[in-house]
Amino acid sequence: MLFCSVFFFLRKITRKTTREKKMNADTLELARKYDSVSSVYMQNGVRDKALSWIELEKDDVVLEVGCGSGRLCKILSPRVNSVTGLDISVGLIELAKRENPASNVQFFEEDAQTFGPHLHDWREKFDKILSFTVLQWCSDKESILKNVYRCLKPGGIFLLDFGLHGQCMGEWSSYGETADVWVRKHPKWGSYLQNCGYAIYYTKSSEGFLEIMRSVGFIIQRSEVKQRPWVKWNEETIKSQLRCLFYPIKHIPAEHQDEFIDDVYKWLYDVTPKRSKDVLQGEVGRFENMTIVATKE
Ligand SMILES: C[S@@+](CC[C@H](N)C(=O)[O-])C[C@H]1O[C@@H](n2cnc3c(N)ncnc32)[C@H](O)[C@@H]1O
């Protein structure tokens, strides 16, 4: 009994900590906003290019880790046996369920670093596991790799793409001072950000990451690190992105968040070279993705 209480207490605080660090898409409204931002990410073709590295079969049982609003699950569901999407965001999973009525698609709200109860239920269940632009949000990448390995069938394939290193979000302006440093020194906003941590966990070495994958048991079939071009962003998309992804916003009282976003946007606009009228390029570029195909023997 005591053990159970301690377990649930620890799980609660661990989940809270993780939740504080992820992006801001807890409500359906924010999830929709975030989804529009995330679909802009995909215009740079990262996901489609990665998908071209593997063959999906009609019988495949597929899991997508960090499925967001389930866009990819929707695309894949007619092509495979079944698709399961897992994501930590309450709002995105709710949106995914609404947008994906197909009977062979299921969604679960869960942290990829634990897999919750699914870790047991999904043992050796999946032929293919996919994950796109998720791992940079997670501090404990090794646990995700172990969970994925456990849930893959022998002979199964893991296709992974994530931000290895980048200049975005907090590091956005990338020309000297960055947005998250600037807001901390701001006379008004700084006072709210005394206890604001950092949310993105980049990986220092691509080779080191592959070594971790090998130590988990994966056999690396192919990998690539590439600088990715980012599409042009206008005021609306940048503000949506700030609303969902600029983590200090979680520390700003709701009634001040619009003003906060306006201030950060104005600052970004001032410090960032313009690609063309009203289009910033400071957050564009210098984002390195790593794509990996690995198998389980
Ligand atoms: C940039 S989005 C990518 C979404 C989707 N994979 C796509 O390609 O459109 C990152 C996703 O990772 C999810 N995420 C972040 N941390 C997570 C975690 N610890 N466990 C599961 N999902 C997580 C977010 O909620 C979000 O949906």
TrEMBL record:
Entries under SUPFAM superfamilies matching the protein: S-adenosyl-L-methionine-dependent methyltransferases
Pfam families (alphabetical): Methyltransf_11
Domain of life the protein comes from: Eukaryota
Domain Methyltransferase type, residue spans: 63-159
InterPro entries, alphabetized: Methyltransf_11, SAM-dependent_MTases_sf
GO molecular function, one term: methyltransferase activity
Family annotation (PANTHER family): TRANS-ACONITATE 2-METHYLTRANSFERASE, TRANS-ACONITATE 2-METHYLTRANSFERASE-RELATED
UniProt-recorded name of the protein: Methyltransferase type 11 domain-containing protein
Organism: Strongylocentrotus purpuratus (Purple sea urchin)
Lineage: Eukaryota, Metazoa, Echinodermata, Eleutherozoa, Echinozoa
